[in-house]
What does this fold into?
Amino acid sequence: MILHMIAAIRCTNLVKHYEGRPPVEAVRGLDLTVEAGECFGLLGPNGAGKTTTIEIIEGIAEPTAGEVEIFGMRWGRDDNAIKERLGISLQETRLSEKLQVRETVTLFRSFYKCGLEPDEVIRRVSLEEKATTRVGNLSGGQRQRLAVACALVGDPDLLLLDEPTTGLDPQSRRQLWELIHAFRVQGRTVLLTTHYMDEAERLCDRVAVVDHGKVIALGSPRDLIAELGGEHIIEFTLDERDGLSPLEPATLSDLPAVRSARKDADHFSLSVTEPHIALPALLERLGQGGHPLAGLSTRHASLEDVFVMLTGRHLREGDATS
Amino acid sequence: MNEQTRPASSEKRYWPMGQLILARVREFYREPSALFWVYGFPLLMVVALGIAFRNKPAEQILVDVQQDGGDTPGFQSVYDILKENAAFKVQKGDAAQCRLRLRTGKTALVIVPPPSPGEPSQYLYLFDQTREESRLAHSKVDDVLQRANGRVDPLPVKPVDVQEPGGRYIDFLVPGLVGMNLMGGGLWGVGFVTVDMRIRKVLKRFLATPMRKTDFFFAILLSRLIFLVPEILVLLVFAWLAFDVVVQGSILAVVVLILLGALAFAGIGLLVASRARTLEAVSGLMNLVMLPMWVLSGIFFSSDRFPEAMQPFIKALPLTTLIDALRSVMLEATPLQALWPQVAILVGWAVGSFVLALRWFRWQ
It folds into this structure.
């Protein structure tokens, strides 16, 4: 085919080692393709290699091995052309507290050949009323929106956001989601990292689950959840008394409509296709075994369940390497 | 993507270096404590030193006349002669009191007169030969007493009091303080700010924009030059108004030297900050760089007082070079052409440190 869409981002066999004691292999052979126009999420626990990956894509870190292409361009050859099309927000950039919002945005605007009017960007991130407020007097959510404004002011085609909503209150998170959504509607591309599953499910067309520097699952949130085998989760706890033989989760796998079963501490969870079939069978089985229920709930499966199934760990259980 | 999806995009040109300079200037004047340290502190320093080292009227010489057994004629004549002379502050006391005052430094010289003026016994001068004021008191008292007793000087002499601006300590001090300010301002103003931006990851953030690195570095240097205008002006104008310190040579030469000095220290500041990752590290490095110059470069006293063997090293230090050249112009009206070696050394420091800083600079 002559006509093929140039991917917004294409990473091939990315490797990044940090020297030190002990040396850290932050990224170990990561492949990633982000198509133009999609919103892509990098998901994973702390220390999974998300930030290193995004910094390599941003041209801030150099990969030990592997290749990165951004709109078909490469770092080291087309640096300025790439930078003109990128908008980024780093984790924890502390912009000068003494500068006002408009001054900060104007400063960033001046670096780009082509871009938006500072006031227009400030309006987009809903900071009009704060335009002459010093950065030092902004709230956490406002600062984060200012960071996004600095990313948007160059009118980028690709937005790279490293944990844009970490530490924000729910309202600020929703405001940022709307911002990202508005950017997407213009047909532009977004790559973001997060460890909030609801954020990824809500914003992203596709996600890559990253663990120990590798992509361990890739697809749309819906597909990944479907790969669990069941789109519903039944969770229950037992009122375990002395003398009773503990219930083995594996013995529940043969129940109708149950695809898998696991137990975390005293917390059982079953991945099921049809809860209305699985539930009665489960209750009957528990009754036969004399296991009194202490609690039971059902919910839709989430990316969190995908992650737990893939790694046996919860996403937020910080990793030792972080 | 067609143009319709980006209606607000424009190619309006902004001037990134101007924006970077503006940001630095704003950050600076919105920080009141920085304003004090840069502008207030040097002023306080000039005032304090000016007061401490102001040229006082010649001090009176403290002498004691030993009084043994009442007002003998011998005692009285010496006491009266010295008492009449404004150069002396005379006290009397018995032998023990005088000795105690001499030992504790309360008097410079004890005179033990003979009981009566005509007697053939001699005058005794008791003093510590190693003390300068005692030696001075001795020669002065001897002079006065000998003359009062009929000595005639063979040569006519006339002491002329010479005290003009340019020769006082404060005149010597002001160029030193200007140099010291340029060093402190350059190193702190450039070094500290740069490391702070690195810690806040602003440098890293800038790296991900199309910002030209040369714009960034020139903005740092130029904003430094902007800050030093009021800094140096305040110092020089105050020294002029309060202490009548004037520039004997060309003002233009002073301006050129100050600019060169500022650039040299800004370059050194950038070099010191080129790799440091913490404020502690950069503070330590800056003190390491500044301490030898504080001590050796002749801010408060001439660097010529250090041993001959150290002079080539001392003369090559940027602060020594700058202060020496400033003093030459301000006190001796030396033309700039005659100071080309100093100018060359300063240019060397500025260019060398800047080039090395660019090579080693760490953006994150």
Q: What stands out?
A: Residues 61-148 of chain B form a domain with the abc type-2 transporter like fold fold (CATH 3.40.1710.10). Chain B has a mean pLDDT of 87. The CA atoms of residues 298 and 305 of chain B lie 9 Å apart. Chain B touches chain A through 32 residues (CB under 8 Å).
